[in-house]
Specification:
Helix content: 40-55%
Oligomer: single chain
Strand order of the largest sheet: 1-6
Largest sheet: 2 strands, parallel
Shape: globular
Number of helices: 12
Structural class: mainly alpha
Strand content: 5-15%
Length: 305
């Protein structure tokens, strides 16, 4: 063995050990989240990795563009949420999901949590198209809008109205605002970042209010539907994942995120057939906070959300 080989041996071994340690740490970190949150993280990350290999044309196939929707590419109403304009855009959206997603999933259950996000993505896309149509500005017809933050704003609206009282929430981890103003504060602050979709974020907030107190709640799947889904196809596989959270209805806590709020053990809790869950403060006041870092200031070819 030459001297070069001898010197390379420990270096290569050390590199492999570092990679193995990193992968193990990443696995432990991911397994610390409930199954539904992991699925969303994995889908967004995998989609971005594929996009890095294929190039910008990949995201352009999935982002929401009014002209493409009008031509029949309806899948974009949902898929625009799982593609991002860059690594920073992806990172900030996923970092925002981490403190918010697990808390909601713990109260709703994994399948209702995933169904809620799927509906939020679709309805957010529909509202965005309607907003751009009403405004009538031609500049929006061929603009590619992408990113998960519209869904995050929907979740934030539901979170602040159903699972907090009157405590302040930190926006961007810095600015404290009354909890009910947090989504609007995010909307305003985002406008100081280049290439941010105002209507994309506004649509997410509107869907949140629509689910909280409007007719959109009736578009959500009922508890029996969720139960039936849990025993079939991909949903059955999801139910077998580590960290799967069963809907609270299975444990006698049938309170809906959109139809009722009650504390654990509250005998006066209203029952509902849609998204059973328990509406109570998720963490102690001193620990509570939701930050939404959402935009990629480097994205120049698309509006991001």
């Amino acid at each position: 063995m030459s001297e070069g080989d001898a010197s390379e041996g420990p270096s290569v071994a050390g590199g492999r050990a570092m990679v193995a340690t990193t992968l193990k740490s990443a696995r432990i970190f991911l397994l610390s989240f409930p199954a539904g949150t992991r699925i969303v993280l994995a889908v967004c990350i995998v989609m971005h990795l594929i996009g890095q290999v294929i190039g910008p044309s990949f995201a352009e196939r999935f982002c929401i563009v009014p002209d493409k929707i009008y031509s029949g590419q309806i899948h974009r109403l949902v898929t625009h949420t799982i593609v991002h304009s860059g690594w920073l855009h992806l990172l900030l959206n996923m970092v925002s999901l981490i403190p918010l997603g697990p808390k909601l999933e713990e109260k709703l259950g994994t399948l209702p949590f995933l169904a809620l996000q799927l509906h939020a993505a679709f309805l957010g896309g529909v509202v965005y198209i309607l907003l751009t149509y009403v405004v009538g500005a031609s500049r929006y017809r061929d603009v590619c809008v992408l990113g998960y933050s519209g869904v995050l704003l929907t979740l934030l609206v539901l979170f602040v109205y159903k699972f907090t009282t009157n405590e302040a929430i930190k926006v961007f981890g810095i600015v404290s605002v009354p909890n009910t103003l947090a989504p609007w504060a995010c909307l305003v602050l985002f406008q100081f970042i280049p290439n941010v979709s105002f209507f994309g974020h506004l649509a997410g907030i509107m869907v949140g209010y629509g689910m909280y107190g409007g007719g959109m709640r009736y578009l959500l799947p009922s508890a029996p539907t969720i139960d039936a889904m849990a025993s079939r196809g991909p949903c059955l596989l999801t139910a077998r994942l580590p960290g799967y959270v069963a809907p609270p209805a299975a444990t006698g806590l049938p309170v809906s995120i959109v139809n009722g709020v009650a504390s654990v053990g509250n005998a006066g809790a209203r029952e509902s057939g849609r998204f059973p869950g328990v509406g109570r403060p998720l963490v102690p006041t001193a620990e509570r906070g939701a930050s939404l870092y959402e935009e990629d200031p480097d994205g120049a070819d698309a509006d991001i959300e």
